[in-house]
Write a structure and sequence with these properties.
Chain A: Residues 4-235 form the ABC transporter domain. The complex is a heterodimer. By secondary structure, chain A is of the alpha+beta class. Chain A has 8 helices and 20 strands. Classes of the chains: A alpha+beta, B mainly alpha.
């Protein structure tokens, strides 16, 4: 059952298209994460769905109903702003109850139990009376979430939901959010520039570039098979070179690289994930340029005798030192053939 | 597109208000002065300006304004520094005290200086010194009046300049003075210029102070317009002088607008509370002492003398003059002077309400998209500050006297005129606050189901009500002290406080003098109390254009 459908949505600012003919569907109870660098049009997409940004072309449908002409406050969607936008003149309880007050006809006291329930849900029980200014970043984020969830929106949208939080908190909250959305059956459309966040949160990931969708799929699909060099580089992979593929082997600046079975032949580009660059006794000879400890592994930057700089990963034990000369070979499972540019 | 429509709708009422109660009366006066059956008589402009007595007025108006501005800067800049950089006990109270003169009606300022340096004034009694026939009384009164403008405008910025900038210059080898001159002064210069222009504006159009202290020998343009209109009934001359004043003020306002815009350059501002320190060393203590002494002599003393004179009744100190205000007296008034307090409060409240509605709508319109038309609208709102209030008042008399707008006998005439000067204050106070409300808060409310009107009520209103109250306080204080227009249109049986004070001063006799002092004291207390309430409300105690 499709809850949200975008058909050829475009938004132009002056001559520039911030969103360019985007088609997107979000099914009920699904969590979709739009991933892209800043300026890729992902926040504009959320504003379009909320009705805060008029479209230059295309249609927005919610539950099959065209939303053209439906004002923001009647769309029944929730939006959690990037910097939360909590109302500074209301306490936590007043912020969470706001949407209930706007929608419900019930008396003043009737919201109390719902507010308490939501604050409990986001892990801030009893915070009703606290001033917004006294909250830490993480607490503000929780209050913003409770506020957005309170009126039970049919679609909850999150703009960089964890963007401003520190790393530890982020990792914990992603897990919490995912559990929460699963429990409540909420339909979620989130945008983020952080791939880790997107992969952890989403059932489906949509990568955007310059207002267009570059790739859509499950986190695993996108991670394993980036659809283009842009997506690969955006995911943090740097080992991308032009190549000519034939007979299961790619001819690259680094020499012959084995590719997976069934890869397209001819002039292509090839991505070698760092995990697929294996340090061993023989193969391409390189000098270790730098070595960065990553906790679970060591990231190496290698200067090969031919071709551009190469990123590699190896275990903690036996990692070479800077200046060491090593040889590397390539594991076909970690090689992806990308379409030529 | 819809935003534009809303913007124009908001502008409609202020435009009608200014058209009817400002442009129309002023244009009518100018027309009556310069137009005869034979058409426009622009030759009169040259004739009037060529008259030696008018040339004297022009010259005096200009040089006293320049001298007042220079003197105010000289005396108030050290004060601005002390308020910005030093921490000392009673600083908050002292800041309120130096601001009191600015909201005082000019008539009270004149009266206070009369009590200090005039005939039978304190200096006259002590040492036989009288300054009320000299220009010094006017200049000192102008400094008294505008001290706060410099302290607040310049000091407000000074307090927020990061002292580490100067420290950086010192570390790079600049001496104490060189660091100040090359780092702090350039940052302050636009604020100093803005303050100077403001002081110039106020003193160039000075009316009440000069009317009371200038005597027959000194007259500013505004006083001369009043004299030509009310006493000599020479409308052509008054019309020409109004236009001259208008042109001069237009020029000053244009320069002011430019400097204010330049002032908005990116300076690294910090929390003012972090930059202040306790004065240490003999230099800094001497500076603090000097500023305190200046404030005591220049601001506290005149106000104190005013109160003292009001209590100095014939039979010894007491409330004799105050009691006399309850009686009709010897033909100066149709009603007991005390009634003027009630009149003033009623008028000022009505004027405040009008100014809030008109100014609030205008500020709302200005918050929306900026454009050439909107900037013109912004400038239009400031015009009443630059046009002779006397002309506006007289214009009311000759234009609003026939159907459908026959307001001659209506009490609303006075509040309408007073609201004209209140509106610019309302707009200037509301605008920065309205602009500071994050549009995305409104969006957050909309997404949560609030209609645009509901979002305004739930988000904007709670955030700006404080500014609204401050604007109301300013509008109330200016309305209470408005004199130039009110003196024309207040009915004889319903005088306002400033009008009653000048009438009392215009008559001989100790009783009238004492009553004028008593009424002025009452007026001062009303204004001071409303100011102190405002100071408590002001969220950021150092900023603000006024």
């Amino acid at each position: 059952m499709t809850l949200l459908r975008l058909e050829g949505v475009s938004v132009r600012f002056g001559g520039r298209a911030a969103v360019d003919a985007v088609d997107l569907e979000v099914a009920e109870h699904e969590t979709v994460c739009v991933l892209g660098p800043s300026g890729s049009g992902k926040s504009t997409l959320l504003r379009v769905v909320a009705g805060l940004q008029p479209v230059s072309g295309g249609r927005v449908l919610l539950d099959g109903a065209d939303q053209a002409g439906v004002p923001v406050h009647r769309r029944g969607v929730g939006l959690m702003f990037q910097d939360h936008q909590l109302f500074p003149h209301r306490d936590v309880g007043g912020n969470v109850a706001f949407g209930l007050r706007m929608r419900g006809a019930a008396g003043r006291g009737a919201y109390g139990s719902r507010v308490a329930e939501l604050l409990e849900l986001v892990g801030l029980p009893g915070a009703q009376g606290r001033a917004v200014a006294s909250l830490s970043g993480g607490e503000q984020q929780r209050v913003a979430l409770a506020r957005a969830l309170a009126p039970s929106p049919r679609l909850l949208m999150l703009d960089e939901p964890l963007g401003q939080l520190d790393r530890g908190l982020r990792e914990r909250l992603v897990v919490e959010l995912r559990g929460l959305f699963a429990r409540l059956g909420t339909t979620v459309l989130a945008v983020t520039h952080d791939q880790g966040e997107a992969f952890a949160l989403a059932d489906r990931v949509v990568v955007m570039r310059d207002g267009r969708i570059a790739q859509a799929g499950t986190p695993l699909e996108v991670w394993q098979r980036p659809a283009s060099e842009f997506v690969a580089r955006f995911l943090g992979f740097e080992n991308v070179v032009p190549a000519v593929v034939s007979g299961g082997v790619a001819d690259t600046a680094w020499g012959k690289v084995p590719v997976p079975d069934g890869a397209p032949e001819g002039a292509q580009r090839v991505l070698i994930r760092p995990a697929g660059v294996t340090v061993g006794a023989d193969g391409l000879r390189c000098e270790v340029l730098s070595r960065t400890f990553r906790g679970t592994h060591v990231a190496l930057l290698l200067g090969p005798e031919a071709g551009p700089v190469l990123e590699a990963e190896c275990g903690l034990a036996g990692a070479p030192a800077v200046g060491d000369r090593v040889a590397v070979s390539f594991a076909p499972a970690e090689v992806v053939v990308l379409p030529p540019q | 597109m819809r935003a534009t429509v809303v913007g124009f709708a908001l502008m409609a009422l202020p435009l009608v208000f200014f058209g009817l109660f400002f442009a129309y009366p002023v244009a009518a006066i100018v027309g009556r002065g310069l137009k005869t059956d034979a058409g426009w008589q622009f030759g009169r402009i040259g004739e009037v300006l060529a008259r030696p007595d008018i040339a004297d007025v022009l010259w005096f108006t200009t040089w006293q304004a320049l001298a007042s501005t220079g003197l105010t800067l000289l005396i108030a800049l050290p004060g601005a520094y002390v308020f910005a950089r030093f921490d000392f006990p009673g600083k908050g109270l002292l800041r309120a005290v130096v601001t009191v003169p600015f909201v005082l009606p000019t008539v009270v300022v004149g009266t206070a200086f009369l009590a200090l340096v005039g005939r039978n004034g304190l200096l006259d009694q002590l040492w036989g010194i009288r300054l009320d026939t000299t220009v010094w009384a006017i200049l000192l009164a102008h400094v008294f009046f505008n001290y706060a403008v410099v302290v607040r405008t310049v000091g407000g910025l000074w307090a927020q300049l990061d002292p580490r900038q100067e420290e950086a210059a010192r570390v790079l080898g600049a001496g104490r003075f060189a660091a100040w001159r090359r780092v702090t002064l350039p940052a302050l210069a636009p604020a100093v210029a803005a303050a100077a222009l403001m002081v110039f504006l106020f003193t160039f159009s000075s009316f009440g102070v000069v009317q009371i202290l200038g005597g027959p020998s000194y007259s500013t343009l505004e006083v001369e317009v009043y004299r030509q209109t009310a006493q000599l009934l020479d409308l052509p001359t008054a019309a020409v002088l109004t236009m001259v004043q208008f042109a001069a003020m237009g020029l000053v306002l244009a320069v002011h607008a430019r400097t204010v815009r330049r002032r908005e350059t990116a300076l690294r501002l910090v929390d003012p509370r972090r930059t202040a320190h306790r004065p240490h060393g003999p230099m800094e203590r001497a500076l603090l002492g000097g500023v305190l002494l200046t404030v005591a002599v220049l601001i506290v003393l005149p106000l104190g003398v005013l109160v003292e004179r009001s209590l100095d009744a014939p039979g010894g100190y007491g409330l004799g003059f105050y009691r006399a205000l309850e009686e009709v007296g010897s033909g100066t008034f149709l009603v007991p002077p005390l009634e003027s307090i009630g009149n003033s409060l009623e008028y000022a409240l009505a004027a405040t309400a009008i100014a809030l509605v008109v100014g609030g709508l205008a500020a709302g319109a200005l918050t929306r998209r900026a454009g050439r038309f909107v900037r013109g609208f912004d400038a239009l709102l400031m015009l009443p500050l630059g046009v002779s209030a006397v002309t506006v008042g007289f214009g009311f008399l000759i234009t609003l006297d026939e159907p459908p707008l026959d307001l001659r006998t209506s009490w609303i005439l006075v509040p309408l005129a007073q609201a004209l000067v209140g509106v610019p204050f309302v707009v200037r106070t509301m605008l920065p606050v309205l602009r500071a409300v994050d549009a995305r808060l409104r969006e957050a409310a909309a997404v949560l189901g609030a209609s645009p009107w509901r979002a305004w009520r739930e988000v904007d209103l709670p955030l700006v009500w404080r500014a609204l109250l401050i604007a109301a306080g300013f509008a109330f204080a200016v309305s209470l002290g408005e004199f130039g227009a009110t003196v024309f249109i207040a009915r004889p049986d319903r005088p306002t406080l400033p009008v009653a004070v000048t009438r009392l001063l215009g008559r001989a006799g100790e009783m009238n003098y004492g009553q004028a002092m008593a009424l002025s004291t009452i007026l001062m207390l009303v204004c001071a109390v409303s100011l102190l309430v405002l100071e408590r409300l002001r969220p950021d105690k150092t900023s603000g254009e006024f």
